[in-house]
Amino acid sequence: MAKRNSVLWQIQFPDSHFTSYLFGTMHLQASEAYNHVSMAEKAIDTCQSIYLEFNLDEASQISPTDYFFFPKGITLEEHLGTKRFEKIRKQFLKSFDFELAAYNSFLPILTLNAVSESLFNKVHAVSLDSHLWNYGQSNNLKLGGVESFQDQLTILKCIPIDYQISLIKNMAKNPKRFRKQTNQAATAYQNQEIHKLYKITKRSLGKIRSLMLYDRNLRMAQKITEIVKSENAFIGVGAAHLSGQKGVIHHLVNSGIICRPVLT
User: Fold this and answer.
1) Which tens digit of pLDDT belongs to each residue from 108-123?
2) b/e burial code for range 54-64 (CB count within 10 A of at least 16 → b)
3) Measured between alpha carbons, how far is 252 from 229 in angstroms, rounded to an integer?
4) Is the pTM of this model over 0.85?
5) Do 163 and 72 touch, CB atoms closer than 8 A?
6) Residue 245 pLDDT level (bands cut at 50, 70, 90)
């Protein structure tokens, strides 16, 4: 069922008078992320609450120092060695117009996200997620998170540093593949091809796909199942989480929830 091409799904238990919506987001400020914002806003207008991957207000209250940077003040250059670091830095400049030195202290997984974001024009003032949050807030809706921001930070710390560094090395070796993959994901989102987006994301995550995708999908589905029992909720999570045999929609169906794609 989740192979149907839609980023918006109507979800409800049989015979329930509560109707909720599950929407796949794209965590960018680019125009590509906003392609389906009008359909999301129409769904929000019918709901009492909005839940995104995490509570954005909670996130603003947590200091990133202990989570976003290498432990003990170590840098990427120290891990790689100056000669290797400079070689990769020049490759990033050439391929992405991205200054790696500015992210020398950041965890490599966050640097990868920053490179991905840099490939798109920041047309909008905030990311799609923040826009939806603000829209719900302006309509006096109840606001919440499917996960907690602390949960996401804990997951971040579980990704081995050596593996994160290997991703940086691989990107430098094959920047064209990374750019192509990023563009394919954006196109899939624009076309609402959520299963294709899931496959692209699964492939890119490699050995951390269970940590970053499968395990989170199950926890998200469990939380969503509880939410939709008692309220008309709009729920927005990254679109790559929706499809697949271990995707959120599949888990919801197994919980007895009816999931219908909203087709445009």
Assistant:
1) 999 999 999 999 999 9
2) bbbeebeeeee
3) 12
4) yes
5) no
6) very high
